Every structure is written in structure tokens, then in C-alpha cells.
Amino acid sequence: MKLILVCLFFGMSMTFAQQSAVDSLKKELERAKNDIDRARLLNQVADEYKTIDPKQLSAYARKALQLAVSIRYKAEEANAKVNLGIADIISGNYREALRLFAEAQFIFESELNAGNKKEEVRKGLARAYGSMGVVFSEQSSYAKALQFDLKAVSIYEQLNDIRRCARIYNNIGIIYQAQKQDFKALDYFIKSWKKQQQTKDPNQGITLTNIGNCYARQKDMAKAFQFYSKAKAFLEKHGDARGLGELYNNLGLYYKSQSDAANAIINWDLATAAFRNIDDRFGLADTQLYLGQFYFDQKQFPKAILYANQALGLAKETAVLEQVTASQKLLSDSYAALNDTKKALQHMRLFDAAKDSLNNHESIRKSVEAEMNFEFDKREALQKKEMEKKELLFAEASKRHTMQTFFVVLFVLLLGGIALLIYSRINLKKTLTLQKELAEYEQKALHLQMNPHFVFNCLGSISSFIVQNGTDSAIKYLAKFSKLMRLTLEYSKEPLIPIDKEIESLQNYLELEQLRFNQKFTFNIHKNPAIEDDMAIPPLLLQPFAENAIIHGLIPIKEKGHLAIAFVVEEKHLVCTIIDNGVGIYQSQRMKEGSVSVHKSMAIDITKKRLQMIEDSTSVKARLQIEELKDGNSIKGTKVTLRLPLQYLSK
Predict the structure, then answer these.
(1) How many CA atoms lie within 13 A of 133 on its CB side?
(2) Which of 10, 279, 337, 635 has the lowest tally of Cβ within 10 angstroms?
């Protein structure tokens, strides 16, 4: 009973759907505006080609790798190496495939250790693990295959990726089946099938066939036939000729075990037709061997010789030594049964020669596999040692920093104790002055964000909506305006507010500006999942920059603009970015000709002073950066980056 591995490839029925997906991705690739998107799309096109054109898979993966390396996009560099490794599996170059998968694994793990917990990185690592599992399974290194498959499925389960979980479950089942642990194998095949039912995966037919084979090995022929029947329905529905051919072969063996010769022959004939339809000579040779062995058992030796010769011819064409050996043995036994000792001896000699070649081939293969495994283990040990070295250096640096900090603090405390009496009044005065300046800057910042000019424009827009669009639009505008006013007054009382509250304020403000400028621009606000609920930010810190981006960046352009605001955590900083695709900061300054530059410079000046006070209170560097985005000589907009120390409400 032959089991079917499902990890890297879909059935032949997926070809047309995948070609359509390739065409769609290529159009998207032509429209891509930056190298990051191009690298990602090149890898997606390569992935779609894996079942329809391995050469194109390799070509697009190499383009993705070259681009990803040039822009230092680690995640897509690793994905490109996984795609190239899959191309090497298809061509049979397992050594190179394993090297590429190991390099991709190292990149993904390094990204995770560096704090990059993005879903694309975790999925990429799981894909690398699963691909390595396929290589080791093909080499019969089942312990290692199981090790990497379990790592892959653990990540897919965390990501709730049901479809890929199902594929890995199937492959784990095959590993246990190869080790003759039938009950564990059956358990994983059934888990795979249940997942596939949730996603309506067309590969259910393959998994159902494997379940049927498990029951057949356990001599539970009733259940075996039940699952074979279900598999047949799925495979016929999705037109998977190769899957049907394997199923018909297994059904032939089932009917043979039930002494139903007629149905056994019918199913083997159907398998023959299915394999011939897709020119699968390997599968066809298996079928001819089944028929030859069947007729030999029935003592119909001429027919046994006929099918054995057909299998031998196909096996020689595909250079599959196992099939050549089995065909020669069947021919020798058949001629011996007919008392044709000359031909029986002739084929016995050919059988011995084929068996020796097979043994030599197996010895060479095992030697190569052992060398590959040694190289892999060595590379993995070096990578592990590299990671441990980095962790050790980091621990030593942390320990040294802690000791330095301790002595510095001790020294400062001693000096502080001596100077406390002398400078107490000066420190008190500085503290009061700092508090006064903080209050003044907070008020200036709030006034800058909600300036009378903005209020006047909002009220004018409400009046215009009443005249032109009716009361519904005016009421909607007024409701958002009043909510923004209430949030501004509410937040101005607090030195820190949760990031979600800042996002709510920005969301309300940007929706208001969208109404005001008649949907002239779109926007999105993204908060990284790593940001904790009690992480905080000074109130209304980003609104002046959002307003500048809209008024001076997006409104002057003819096409529809876009504003992107993001909050992410990098080491000890909360990084806030505001990106627009407007005219750019320098063009904006030339267009304004100083007419509103005072307003903008006040916003930047006040924000810098607020950042300075944050640095003084947290002892962590805060930074504001404004840069113009370019693609060659073309201006793509402006990017404002605020790097703030991590602060929490509980503290």
C-alpha cells in the first residue's frame, strides 16, 4: 500500500487555478512601487510556479533573492532560499536543498531572536522546518524528519493556519507509517483530514487514501474500503489523475485480498488508464507489476510474463532500479513455472545483476545521505554555537553594564549626599521651573493642535454642509468635531494616556479632515501586537504632524493621497511614524513661501522641548526625524519618525 506525501505540491487539478494566480501576481508586480513589495511579490510568483514550472520557480526565486539581499530584506531573502530549495528537491539535488533550507532557518530564527515577531517571519520559519522535514523523510532519516515536522506544526498551530497544519499532519503520519507505528500514523492522518474538512481542501482525497491504507495494513478491510470510497469521490471531483491512479492500485490490492479477481483487474485497468493519461511511467510500472504478480498467483504464467515485460520496459525508461529488480524476479519465477529453464536462468542472472546495482546504489545513496547529514549537523552546530556566543556576549555586556551602573549610582549618591545641603534650594527652583515649563509647553502644544484657524474651518465646513448637503452630513461632521473637542480637553489633564486613546483621537481627527476635504485622502493606523495595553504616550503628540501632512503634503497633490501612521516597539523605544505620499517637505516649503511656516516651526519646536523633558525624566534618548522619501529622482512623500522611551501607566 503506497502512501502519498503532501507538503510542497498540490495535485494536477490545481494547475489552471495556479496559472490564474500567477497572472494576477505578475500584474501586481508590474504595478509595485517599491522594492519591498517587489521582493515579496517575486517570491509569491515563485511559490505559485512550484507545481506548474520548476524552471520559472527557480528563476523568480533567484530574482527575489538578489533584490532582497540588495535592500537587506531578511524575511524575503530567507523565503527566496526556501523557494530555491524546493526547486532543488524537484530536481533531486537534496544536498543543495538542505543547505538552502538551513540558511533560511538561521535567518528566520535570527530575526525572531532580534525581536521581529511578525507573522511572515514565523510562517517562513515553519515553512523552512516543513521543507527540511520533507528532505529528511525522502532520505528515510525519519527521526530528523519528525523533529522538523513537529517544529513546523507547532508554529502553524499557534498561527491557526489550518491548511498547512493539515499538510504537516499528513507527512507526520507517513513518517510514523514508515516506522510501522500504524496507530500513531492513523491518528495523524485523521487529524489531517479533519483540518482539511474545515478548509474544504481538495487534497482530502490523498489523505483519505492514506487512511484507507492504514486500515488495510491493520486488516480492517471494511473501514479501508469505506475510506477508499470517500477518497474516490474527492479525487474524481477534482480531477487528480495521479491520486486516482494510486487509489485504483490500492483498490486492486484490496479486491485481491478479498479474492474478488474481477474487481481487482477492473481497478488496475483504471489505474493504467489514469497513469497513461498523464504519462506517469513510474505509476504505470507499479500497476503492471501488480497485474503480473496477480496473474502469477493465478498460475496464468503467460499473462504474468506479458505484464512483467511491460513493467520492465517502463522501469528501464525511468531508471527505477527497484522496479527493474522486481520485474526480472517475476519473469524468472514465471519462466521457471513454465519449465523454461533457459529463460528462467537468464532472467535470474539479470535479477542478480539488477539487485547488485540496487544494493550499490543504496550504499552510495546512504553514504551521500550520511555525508549530507554530517554537513547539516555540523552547520547546525556552528549556527547554534554562533547564537550561544551572541547570547553570551549579550549577557556579559548586560552584566558589565549592571556593574557600571551600580558603581556610577553609588558614586552619584555619595556626591549627591555631600551636595544636597548646598544645592537643595537650587534644585527646588529648577524643579519648579521645569514643572512650570512643562505646563506651558503642554498648553502650547494643545493650542497648536486645536488652533482657532482649524476651529474656524471646521465651523465653516459645518455651515457649508448645512447649505449644500443637508443636515445629516452636517450633524455627522459636528458630532465628530464635538467628540474631538471633548477628547482634547479630557486628555490635556493627563501627562500620559494609553496608546489606544491616542489612536482614538487621531482616528477621530483624520475622519473629520476626510469629511472636511471631501475624501481627498485615505489613511490607516497600525499598532504592532507587541505593544502592551498599559504602554503610554504623552497626549496629542502626533496630531500637529498629521495636520501638516494633510494640509501641506496631501492637499496640494492632484491624485488621492494616503496617510499611514504606525506604532511599533524597537528595543527600549516606542517608534511612531507618519508617512504621506504628498509633495514632499521641501516642495511644501517652497509652495508656502513662509506664509504658514511659523505654525509648523512652533509645532516642531514645542515637540522637541517636550521630547527633551521626556529624556530628562526617563534618562532614555528621545528623537524626532523628518525626511523626504524618494525613489531615484522622484519624490514619494514625507516621513516623520518619533522615537520615544517606553513609558507605562502603572509607572
Answers:
(1) 28
(2) 279
> 52 with 18: CB under 8 angstroms?
yes
CA pair distance 268, 461, nearest whole angstrom = 78
Instruction: Report d(CA 167, CA 149) in Å as an integer.
Output: 10
The gap from C-alpha 228 to its chain's centroid, in whole angstroms, comes to 34
Among 38-42, 340-344, 360-364, 550-554, which is the least confidently predicted range?
360-364
Using CB atoms within 10 Å of the CB of residue 181, give its burial: 0 to 12 exposed, 13 to 18 middle, 19+ buried: middle
pLDDT tens-digit map of 459-500: 666 676 666 666 676 777 777 778 777 777 777 667 788 998
Distance CA 65, CA 77 (A): 5
CB of 542 within 8 A of CB of 583?
no
For helices 341-449 and 94-113, the axis angle rounded to 10 degrees is 20
Please give the model's pTM, rounded to 2 decimal places. 0.51
How sure is the predictor about 64, in pLDDT bands with cuts at 50, 70 and 90? very high
DSSP single-letter state for residue 558: S
Cα(128)–Cα(98) distance, integer angstroms:
10
Q: What's at 477, amino acid-wise? A: Y
What would the mean pLDDT of 610-631 be, rounded to a whole number? Answer: 84
Helix or strand (DSSP H, E) at 49: none
pLDDT in tens, 147-193: 999 999 999 999 999 988 998 999 899 889 888 888 899 999 999 99
- For the beta sheet containing 647-648, the strands, ordered from the edge strand earlier in sequence to the opposite edge, are 497-498, 535-537, 647-648
- Return all residues near 515 (Cβ < 8 A) that are at least 6 apart: 461, 473, 476, 477, 480
Alpha-carbon span 472 to 450, nearest angstrom: 25
Other C-beta atoms lying within 10 Å of the C-beta of residue 237: 12
In 469-555 the beta strands, taken as DSSP E runs, fall at: 497-498, 521-527, 535-537
* Cα–Cα distance, 317 to 311 (Å, whole number): 10
Cβ contacts of residue 365 below 8 Å, gap of 6+? none
Do 308 and 290 meet the contact criterion of CB atoms below 8 Å apart? no
Q: Closest Cα partner for 542 from 570, 587, 510?
A: 510
Is residue 544 within 8 A of residue 448, CB to CB? The reply is yes
- Is the four-CA dihedral 313, 319, 320, 324 of positive or negative sign? positive
**C-beta of residue 167 within 8 angstroms of C-beta of residue 192:** yes
Closest CA to 253 of 286, 230, 285: 286
Q: First and final CA of the chain: distance in angstroms?
A: 65
User: Quick one: cell of 219?
Assistant: 486488516
Task: Show the cell assigned to 387.
Answer: 547564537
Q: Please, which residues have CB within 8 angstroms of residue 341's CB and are 6 or more apart in sequence?
A: 335
**Which DSSP letter does residue 12 get?**
G
Strand partners, 566: 526, 577
Residue type, 529: P
Q: Measure the CA–CA gap between 574 and 641, rounded to whole angstroms.
A: 10
Residue of 206 and 416 predicted with greater confidence: 206
Mean pLDDT of 264-293: 90
Looking at every residue in the chain, the average pLDDT score rounds to: 82
